[in-house]
Design goal:
The protein has about 400 residues and is of the alpha+beta class. It folds into 3 domains: about 5-100, Butyryl-Coa Dehydrogenase, subunit A, domain 1; about 135-245, Butyryl-CoA Dehydrogenase, subunit A, domain 2 (Beta Barrel); about 255-380, Butyryl-CoA Dehydrogenase, subunit A, domain 3, CATH 1.20.140.10. The protein has helices spanning about 5-10, 20-30, 35, 45-65, 80-95, 100-105, 110-115, 120-130, 245-255, 260-275, 285-310, 315-340, 340-345, 350-360, 370-380, and strands spanning about 135-140, 155, 160-170, 180-185, 195-200, 210-215, 220-235, 235-240. A hairpin with a 3-residue loop joins strand 2 and strand 3. The longest helix has 27 residues, at about 285-310. The termini are far apart.
């Protein structure tokens, strides 16, 4: 399948029209519904699931859809960041899962495009967009989760390379990753956020050990990473030495950009399914779930537009993250209340999906920045309250 000529057509004259992208992508999904049908219900075995989602990634790349909104020099077709949000939302609204590397594509891809040496970005980003490889995010540590300023992984300057030692944890799908965007301390232990450097590491580098961790969903979707005298070339440094905090903050803003937009679209679709499957769901329960998800949509739209326009986000995305975790937990609490037998005892595919989504939602207030940290950020940097 080659790039849809009408995909290129919406780019004629510079900035593509979001309504034009929306209309054409909806038509494309309808035209290829038979070919896309097999992606609606994924295999339960992890290797097959990942393989299927990578196939979806390649199909969307070949048609041109997930190249929209990315610069041509890194394998894209040009256009504003906002058009990437259109594609991700319509996939979710139509009941399709995001491609496997979508999260890292939207969370880590922009950081590599901005902070990596241009030659490196031009080499690796097309491979990510095409679904030829996937990446992971090496931020959290056993004693430094949401508090990145206390991370301990050490990178020692040895001339033309860094020597890295330490441990990362809760690294999503690292067992399938080809690269890792890593934060390591290059300053003194007391340097806090000022002594962190970001680097882009090949996961097949000697000295890296990956140990999957089984979550309560029964899936090994997290890993611990151990780095023992891992040598990272200096030309894999992202941004300035000691400037890793800026890279980390940019990554977190992207996490609350297109990726968060897709997440709220997925929540809207799950809420629609819940109302359809449980007509006895209390109107008040359904109404409050809708209010939370729609409020998240409005906040996420503001963030997405700011990113698309190149504006600084500051700490405002902390509101997005806090509301995202609140909405997700509330939505699946409502699902448990409305579909207890399905969620607790069902054995078919939809029941497994509801159960897995409910269990995963329990971590919504932890992953990507704990709710307590987001409240502190809002209190101190928005409301001007004293530090704890």
């Amino acid at each position: 399948m080659t790039v849809d000529p009408e995909v290129r057509a919406v780019l004629t004259g510079g900035k593509p029209s979001v309504p034009a992208v929306l209309e054409r992508f909806q038509a494309w999904l309808a035209e290829h519904a038979d070919r896309l049908e097999r992606f609606r219900e994924l295999p339960t075995e992890p290797d097959r699931m990942v393989g299927t989602l990578m196939e979806l990634q390649r199909l969307l790349y070949e048609a041109g859809w997930i190249r929209l909104g990315w610069p041509e020099e890194v394998g894209g077709l040009g256009g504003a960041v906002a058009v990437r949000g259109v594609v991700s939302e319509e996939l979710a609204a139509a009941g399709y899962p995001p491609p496997f590397s979508f999260a890292t594509q939207e969370v880590l891809g922009p950081a590599v495009a901005r902070f990596a040496p241009p030659q490196l970005a031009a080499q690796v980003l097309p491979r990510l967009l095409r679904g030829e490889e996937t990446w992971c995010q090496g931020f959290s540590e056993p004693d430094a989760g949401s508090d990145l300023g206390s991370l301990r992984m050490r990178a020692v300057d040895e001339g033309d390379h860094w020597r890295v030692n330490g441990e990362k944890v809760w690294t999503s799908w690292a067992q399938y990753a080809d690269r890792c965007l890593l934060l390591a301390r290059t300053g003194t232990p007391e340097s806090a956020h000022r002594g962190i450097t970001a680097m882009f590491v090949d996961m097949n580098t000697p000295g890296i050990t990956v140990r999957p961790l089984v979550a309560m969903t029964g899936e090994a979707d997290f890993c611990s990473l151990f780095f023992d005298d891992v040598l990272v070339p200096k030309d894999r440094t992202l941004g300035e030495v000691g400037g890793g905090w800026a890279v980390a903050m940019f990554v977190l803003s992207c996490e609350r950009g297109v990726a968060a937009w897709q997440r709220q679209a997925w929540m809207r679709w799950r809420l629609e399914r819940l109302v359809a499957e449980a007509p006895e769901l209390a109107d008040a329960r359904a109404g409050e779930a809708f209010e939370l998800v729609h409020a998240l949509r409005l906040l996420s739209r503001r963030t997405l537009r700011s990113l698309s326009d190149g504006r600084s986000l500051g700490v405002l995305p902390s509101f997005d993250k806090l509301l995202m975790s609140t909405a997700e937990k509330y939505l699946f609490d409502a699902a448990l209340e409305a579909l207890p037998n399905t969620l607790l005892f069902g054995a078919d595919g939809p029941a497994r999906d509801w159960r897995s989504d409910y269990l995963y939602s329990r971590a919504a207030s932890i992953y990507g920045g704990a709710a307590e940290i987001q409240r502190n950020i809002i209190a101190e940097r928005v409301l001007g309250l004293p530090r704890e």
